[in-house]
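Renewal narrative, Specific Aim 1. Our central claim is that a sequence can be written position by position from structural information alone. The example that follows is taken directly from our test logs and has not been curated for this report. It begins with the structure tokens describing the chain, in the order in which they were read.
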């Protein structure tokens, strides 16, 4: 696969906890993408277009998950919880290091 393409949530180097992964997961939260869509093979241009849609979706909620309506908040907790588990299984440590 070309380096300019996203690997997808399951192959993401941090289990989805990267900028590209967050765009995909937030799009899933807001129903812009089905939860089965991982973004695998997507170009950076396609991710950028999706990021713009996601940013518009967050505006009403000030970018805060705590301000999401119950259905979106529940979906956010589930999607991000799964990403955290994937990342931990890959060796990610949620303690901030010098490079974070």
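The sequence written for that structure reads:
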């Amino acid at each position: 696969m070309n380096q300019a393409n996203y690997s997808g949530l399951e192959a993401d180097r941090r289990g989805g906890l990267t900028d590209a992964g967050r765009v995909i997961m937030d799009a899933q939260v807001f129903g812009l993408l089905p939860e089965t869509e991982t973004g695998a093979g997507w170009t950076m241009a396609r991710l950028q277009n999706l990021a713009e849609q996601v940013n518009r979706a967050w505006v009403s909620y000030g970018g805060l998950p705590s301000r999401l309506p119950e259905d979106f908040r529940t979906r956010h907790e589930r999607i991000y919880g799964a990403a955290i588990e994937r990342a931990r299984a890959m060796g990610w440590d949620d303690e901030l290091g010098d490079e974070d």
